[in-house]
Amino acid sequence: MHKSYLNYTFLKQVVRYLKAKQITELENDDGRKYSVKRFLTGQPQQRRKRLQIINGILPAPRKLSKRQTTIAVDEKQELTKELNEQSKHPKVRGIRRGTRADFIHNGSFHEAVGPLLVIAQCFCLMPVRGILAASPKGLSFRWKSFRTWYCILYTLVTIADTGLTINMVVKGVLDVRNIEPLIFHANILLASIGFLRLAAKWPQLMRKWQRVERHMPPFQSWREREALAVRVHKVTFVLITLSLTEHLLSTISAIHFANYCPSRVDPIESYFMTVVSQIFFVFDYSTWLAWFGKILNVLMTFGWSYMDVFLMIIGIGLSALFEQVQRSLERVKGQVMPESFWTRTRLQYRLICDLIEQVDAAVSAITVLSFANNLYFVCIQLLKSMNTMPSVAHFVYFYASLCFLLARTLAVSLYLSEVNDRSREPLKIIKKVPKEGFHPEVDRLAHEIGMDTVALTGLQFFNITRGLVLTVAGTIVTYELVLIQFHEDQNLWNCN
Fold it and tell me: Does the residue 360 lie in any domain?
């Protein structure tokens, strides 16, 4: 048997060879066993420990020198030949097999909202780096990054498209039907600017959110830990799917309308002239410009729906914090608890309220845009419902779109108002505190909950509570009656 002193690079090749042969454990002369996997996954200093392989036997590292690696193999030439054959083939790294840790949620809002932000970045919104990082410490925003630059480019293109829309509306007849594209484009432009500003604040906001989560009562089971992520993902999937379905129906409706009111001989050109009319109001028709306008239209349509989805997720995340505190109180309902427990609970409640103020300052402008957008388009859609539809495709698309719009408007109001509802739930537990356990801290907590209005707002103009739903419904009815009185419901489907 011969021994040869080899460098560390060759040693790594040998270990890979052993791993490929599925040799996971070796044994030395005195019967001690050593794991090849442990050698691969150890610290760098541990991996540099010299190993001696003699006929597949691995002796203890302490018997070897520190600077040399001793590998003795009976059939060294055969081993070297096989290693050389393997090196000729390109190395393809396979997909890593998932482990249990990949499917365990940590219960943080940062983890839950990550996939939603990935979708947003596909449509030129929220250019934040590290959205799938393990913690908010990995988040960052830079103006000199690819994500930011393509979002800025999208905003500039939206500005140009909005300018073309203004030009078309001003040179036409100003009425309810013709002003609709202008409202849509202006709303999307302001939303893209709002999300760009929010992206700059997002890393600090998520770090603040994480600090608050650390002070919350611990989760009692894995179901509680995954509840937030599961709920966020379900809401996102349903709303994005419905939004894509609504856009597909809109495309089918536009195709039928292009045939109903053809502007060109070619039906495809007629469709593009209908969808991106503001562009061809100034420029001559060209295929690449038509497709560019259509892609921009898809991006803007997604941004139109994303506003509502994002606000719903914010409402779900803030409500989940109050829910953690509520679960902690329900576990001790009717029991005599020490004053330190109520002091800790009151501080947790105050931390959530402070976080809500910071979140509201960051997203309230987007909230106003969302409510104004939904209010206007609900009025327009209800107004169109009083007219005869030009085709069956229009009929199907119109009522599907109207139902989706009404449901989305209601969902935004309810999810955001849930923050206010959850903030008042601890009062139910406080009322059942025994007389012996009613400390001054309990009274302070009850006073704060009863006197403070904890809710998201629209630039401080209005608080989003359940009562706002009835207010919005009454406003829609009022506007609808005014529009009907001025006969704005006539000829909303004509070809002119």
Answer: yes
- 3-state DSSP call for residue 4? strand
Query: Are 337 and 213 part of one and the same domain?
Result: yes
Query: With contact defined as beta carbons under 8 Å apart, do 235 and 112 qualify?
Result: no
CA gap 29, 370 in Å, rounded: 74
**DSSP string covering 162-209, please?**
HHHHHHHHHTS--STTTTHHHHHHHHHHHHHHHHHHHHHHHHHHHHHH
Distance of CA 395 to the CA centre of its chain: 33
Give whole-number Cα distances, 467 to 338, 414, 450, in Å. 37, 10, 17
Instruction: Please state, rounded to an integer, the average pLDDT across all residues of the chain.
Output: 79
Rounded average pLDDT over 150-174: 88
Predicted confidence (pLDDT) at residue 114 exceeds the cutoff of 80: yes
Shared domain check, 208 and 63: no
pLDDT in tens, 442-492: 889 888 888 888 999 988 888 999 888 888 888 888 877 777 766 555 555
Domain holding 389, by residue range, is: 199-485
Residue from 360, 350, 347 nearest 317 by CA: 360
Which tokens in the block code for residue 171? 């040179």
Domain-ending residue, one of 64, 84, 104: 84
- At residue 198, the pLDDT reads 94
Q: Is the pLDDT of residue 32 over 90?
A: no
CA–CA dist 466, 419 (Å, integer): 10
pLDDT value, residue 53: 43
Domain termination residue (choose one: 84, 115, 150): 84
pTM of structure: 0.75
Give me the number of domains the chain comprises: 2
Q: Within 13 Å and on the Cβ side, how many CA atoms surround 235?
A: 26
Same domain, yes or no, for 302 and 448? yes
For 192-196, which contacts have Cβ atoms below 8 Å and span 24 or more sequence positions? 192/124, 192/125, 192/151, 192/154, 192/155, 192/158, 192/303, 193/155, 194/365, 194/366, 194/369, 195/120, 195/125, 195/126, 195/303, 195/366, 196/127, 196/148, 196/151, 196/152, 196/155
Is the torsion defined by CA of 165, 118, 305, 291 positive or negative? Answer: positive
| C-alpha torsion angle, residues 273, 276, 279, 285 (rounded to 10) | -30
pLDDT (average), residues 432-438: 84
pLDDT digits (tens, 9 = 90+) for 127-150: 999 898 888 888 999 988 899 999
pLDDT tens-digit series, residues 299-311: 888 888 899 999 9
CA dihedral 443, 446, 452, 456 (to 10 degrees): 140
